[in-house]
């Protein structure tokens, strides 16, 4: 999923009840929804920074600081074809491999610029308040699925090395994944690196049924939902994962009760299988979707869905992030 938008565009759920707020405080840092609310950089989601091919720093309200995005899919290829995908694929780059040397140089450039404070002089970051002038994470996200790349683990190693060279041990490495490649050799090789370097896996799970997966995520080639859930469970047995779920309307209709029930069954399956879920993030469309049939859920419906998830898996914190009415991408 192109998820740096995840950090930048989702509006933090308003009016959390106290109990939920407590869960959230346990699971993550204390939410401060208004921090940086007037900062223009919060809405600036450009993936182009200087002359870089792979690296794009963005300001994240949710992270309350800078997120160094890593897009190792500038070719915009993805193993899913989600109806709600926000990636504009009208322009693609023809690249058949990840240039690891370039990635390393770009990460060093971004981390150095952020660490020495020079980055805050750039016009797009000029009005960022002092409390947000910090590096929160390096996030593998972008215009396709990062874990599908054979060089994924090497890219993680470069991120870890860049972090160490810049003396930033507390900066996280976040991997935003569509969960379709969690059984792959490159992910198996990357996991120990992530564990040793403050890494986190944020795994997409949008469907409770095979039919929903096929309709919403449209895996290419076809994939079994059971395999995807099994992959998440296997990874989550060793480290707690964040589950990201996007609920939305198709031709005006949100997911029905049976689908939501099947979805919470899949969460329960992960937990019963020994998987650890640190957080479930429930969100909806916030930027122009690929399909004209896809539209965001109203805030109250998203809240209701989040409450349903909380009731089904009360031991897991659940956050909801509102969307916006976004016009579909041009055909
Ligand atoms: S198709 Fe789906 S998984 Fe792939 S980049 Fe788009 S939203 Fe992410």
Give the topology.
Layout: H1 4-9, E1 11-12, H2 18-27, E2 55-60, E3 65-70, H3 100-115, E4 135-140, H4 152-165, E5 172-177, H5 185-196, E6 199-204, H6 210-217, H7 225-238, E7 241-246, E8 249-250, H8 257-272, E9 277-283, E10 294-295, H9 299-312, E11 318-322
Helix pairs in contact: 3-4, 4-5, 7-8, 8-9
The chain binds iron/sulfur cluster.
Residues 1-2, 78, 80-82, 85, 87, 144-145, 178 line the site of iron/sulfur cluster (SF4).
Briefly summarize what is shown.
By secondary structure, the protein is of the alpha/beta class.
For the record, what CATH class applies?
A: Alpha Beta
What's the rounded overall pLDDT mean? 87
Reported for the largest beta sheet, the result is: 9 strands, mixed
Global geometry: globular
Ends apart, CA distance between termini: 20 Å
* Strand adjacency order, main sheet: 1-11-9-7-6-5-4-3-2
Structural class by secondary-structure content: alpha/beta
Total strand count, please? Answer: 11
- The rounded Rg comes to 19 Å
Report strand %: 15-25%
Tell me roughly what share of residues is in helical segments.
25-40%
Q: Unreliable stretches, pLDDT < 50, 5 or more residues?
A: 1-37
User: If you consult CATH, what is the topology?
Assistant: TIM Barrel
Count of DSSP H/I helices: 9
Bound molecules: iron/sulfur cluster
CATH superfamily: Aldolase class I
The string of secondary-structure elements, in order, is HEHEEHEHEHEHHEEHEEHE
């Amino acid at each position: 999923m192109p998820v740096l938008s995840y950090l930048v565009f989702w509006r933090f759920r308003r009016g959390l009840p106290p109990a939920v707020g407590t869960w959230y405080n346990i699971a993550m840092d204390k939410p401060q929804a208004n921090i940086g609310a007037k900062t223009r950089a919060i809405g600036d989601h450009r993936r182009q920074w200087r002359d870089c091919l792979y690296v794009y720093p963005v300001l994240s309200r949710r992270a309350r600081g800078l997120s160094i995005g890593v897009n190792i899919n500038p070719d915009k290829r993805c193993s899913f074809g989600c109806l709600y995908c926000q990636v504009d694929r009208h322009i693609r780059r023809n690249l058949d491999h990840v240039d690891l040397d370039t990635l390393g140089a770009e990460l060093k450039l971004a981390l150095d610029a952020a660490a020495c404070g020079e980055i805050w002089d750039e016009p797009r970051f000029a009005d960022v308040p002092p409390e947000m002038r910090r590096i929160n994470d390096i996030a593998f996200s972008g215009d396709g699925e990062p874990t599908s790349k054979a060089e994924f683990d090497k890219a993680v190693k470069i991120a870890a090395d860049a972090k160490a060279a810049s003396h930033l041990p507390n900066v996280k490495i976040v991997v935003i994944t569509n969960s379709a490649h969690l059984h792959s050799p490159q992910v198996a090789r990357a996991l120990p690196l992530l564990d040793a370097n403050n890494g986190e896996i944020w795994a997409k799970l949008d469907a409770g049924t095979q039919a929903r997966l096929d309709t919403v995520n449209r895996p290419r080639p076809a994939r079994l939902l059971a395999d995807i859930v099994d992959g998440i469970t296997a990874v989550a047995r060793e480290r707690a994962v964040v589950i990201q779920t996007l609920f939305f309307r198709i031709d005006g209709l949100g997911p029905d009760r049976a689908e939501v029930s099947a979805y919470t069954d899949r969460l329960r399956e992960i937990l019963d299988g020994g998987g650890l879920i640190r957080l479930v993030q429930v969100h909806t469309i916030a930027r122009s979707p690929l399909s004209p049939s896809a539209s965001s859920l109203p805030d109250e419906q998203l809240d209701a869905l989040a409450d349903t998830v909380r009731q089904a898996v009360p031991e897991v914190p659940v956050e909801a992030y509102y969307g916006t009415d976004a016009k579909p991408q041009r055909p």
